[in-house]
Amino acid sequence: MKMMNCPLNGLRNISEFVYGGEVKSMPDHVTCSDKEWADYVFYSENTIRVVMEWWFHSPSGYWFIAERHTASDEILNTYDPSERFNERVEFDSAAAVTEEKRA
Amino acid sequence: MPFSLLKYGLKNDYPFEKDADLPSPTELKKHYDVIIIGGGGHGVATAYYLAKYHGINNIAILEKGYLGGGNTARNTAVIRSNYLTSEGVKFYKESVDMFQGLSNEFDFNIMYSSRGQLTLAHTDATVRSFRQRTEVNTHFGGKTELIDPQQIQELVPTLNMNPADMPILAGLWHIDGATARHDAVAWGYAKGATQRGVELHQLTEVTDVIVENGKAKGVKTNRGEVSCGCIVQAVAGHSSIVAAMAGIKMPITTYPLQAMVTQPVKPFLDPLVSSSALHCYVQQTGRGEMVFGGGSDPYPLYNTRSTLDLKESLLASAVEMFPFMANLKLMRQWAGITDMTSDYSPIMGLSPVENYYLDAGWGTWGFKSTPICGKSMAELVASGGKVPELIAPFAMDRFDEFRQVNEMGATAASH
Ligand SMILES: Cc1cc2nc3c(=O)[nH]c(=O)nc-3n(C[C@H](O)[C@H](O)[C@H](O)COP(=O)(O)OP(=O)(O)OC[C@H]3O[C@@H](n4cnc5c(N)ncnc54)[C@H](O)[C@@H]3O)c2cc1C
User: Fold this and answer.
1) Where in this chain does the record put each Rhodanese domain (chain B) (predicted)?
2) What ipTM, to 2 d.p.?
């Protein structure tokens, strides 16, 4: 079976992992247009090259980033998301802002 | 050995040459009214209907490999219309009707075989959704019934009624379900199209799309540059890649889909049988082989390699359904790369680029739509971009407006 190197658990069978989509930058969900949000949710590059992707180690509930070639299936690198993301996105406060706007 | 066969064997010319052959390759012209990228079933069907119904025959089909060598050659040939949404059922129903007349229309046998498709329910929730699908299908003129376990056993005596300890509660019996020889469909359309003047250029890869001021003007290929009035792209698994050449981003992810076939055995299974819970479908071909298919690979990839994981999981389910098949030997295994949308419905119609039309997002279920999709795309092209009502719900911008056509439950496991 194909193996993947989980940054938290080491080398594991690929069947323990769940694919989570391309890493893309999220637009500001409070101020962005519907089209921008749709673009973020549904559209993707879906191309042939090394791509940065979200992966999930299901038994331990751990999300991380992998760099993988989408034709050869070679996994070049895996690492903890903190290497790319260091700010927390607060959805609660955003929801509150939207509620305020409505009221 | 019959002497007539020996006589043909010694003759120089092939007896059926004038019937069987496509025209010999020609040089690419400088300009065509319509360029179709992709010589799969969809591309050649679109060309055929443009020439047949709209008198447009200055058309080039550009195919990077060979005619019908993509997913058209790789599918498991299930034809059915028992989907869930009104938009879907209405569309697929027309395709099933058209399939029934294709052999006559082509004067070429596409081996259409109407044996019915049975989908099994193992939970109450599935039974409820089957009830809904029966109603929707019947409403649009399809033949579909909800049947009970006893009727299922009469229909398929060899089926294990308690596969993987999940008792079969009911079945969605789609009497219109059928198969056809997939290659023959592409060949029939190609023959009909080329006889009407359409040019099929195999080994011709589109490497770039020329767009000026938001309008499609032509393509670059490995055989030079060609200008055109408009372009239709019908490249299945490569949809995102080709669309990107025209500067278009698509709501598509490309996944491999694998299937496999066993050695031939005596005929014992007439209907196509699929299980909604085991994600497995089984059918016997006219040659006696058992064909197995199931869900897509678990993550995206542009690669038609085969995996042991898929063989193990799929065959485990198949053997649960028909235990005696455990003794059969696998003969072939293959894969295609499929263009999946998140609502499991296709994308047909206009694109952000003028004169550039999309026929994509067919994922794991697009063989059955070949006739009606070709006919609808031809109408769209011939009218200069007036979207036929039948395909309007499948426009790409449905994703921008959050009005998807959700067929996931009706598509995922039975193609
Ligand atoms: C294993 C498997 C089982 C399936 N089972 C079923 C089923 O039972 N029922 C069903 O209805 N559907 C099924 N499908 C789906 C079905 O096969 C496809 O949706 C359908 O064949 C798509 O047809 P097409 O003509 O659009 O694509 P294709 O037949 O793939 O044709 C596209 C063509 O475009 C060409 N191309 C790509 N890029 C370029 C380029 N740059 N330049 C020139 N040409 C290019 C390719 O070479 C290819 O020949 C299955 C698919 C697979 C893989």
Assistant:
1) 34-78
2) 0.90
pTM of the prediction? 0.94
For B114-129, write each residue's pLDDT tens digit: 999 999 999 999 999 9
**Which CATH number does the domain housing residue B330 bear?**
3.30.9.10
Domains in chain A and their CATH numbers? 3-83 (3.30.2270.10)
Query: Which of B240, B299, B308 lies closest to A19 in CB terms?
Result: B299
Q: Is a pLDDT exceeding 80 seen at residue B4?
A: no
* Pairwise CB contact (< 8 Å): A45 & B249: yes
> Would you say residue B202 lies in a domain?
no
- As a whole number of angstroms, the distance between CA A96 and CA B8 comes to 82
| pLDDT surpassing 90 at residue A56 | yes
With the most atoms of ligand 1 within 8 angstroms of its CB, the residue from B364, B375, B377, B414 to mutate is B364
The count of domains in chain B is 1
- B399 contacts in chain A (CB < 8 Å): 38, 42-43
Residue of B nearest to A38 (CA): B400
Q: B294 lies in which domain range?
A: 115-175+253-339
For residues A72 and B404, what is the distance between their CA atoms, to the nearest angstrom? 32
Distance CA B307, CA B295 (A): 13
Q: How far apart, in whole angstroms, are the C-alpha atoms of residue B186 and residue B74?
A: 12
The span from the CA of B347 to the CA of B393, in Å, is 9
CB proximity B240 to A under 8 Å:
yes
3 state SS of B64: coil
Residue B245 DSSP label: H
Rg (chain B; Cα; Å): 22
Q: How far apart are CA B62 and CA B65, in angstroms?
A: 9
Walk across the sheet containing A17-22 and list its strands: A17-22, A50-57, A62-69, A75-79
Q: What is the pLDDT of residues B91-120, one digit of tens each?
A: 999 999 999 999 999 999 999 999 999 999
Residues B399-410: what's their mean pLDDT?
93
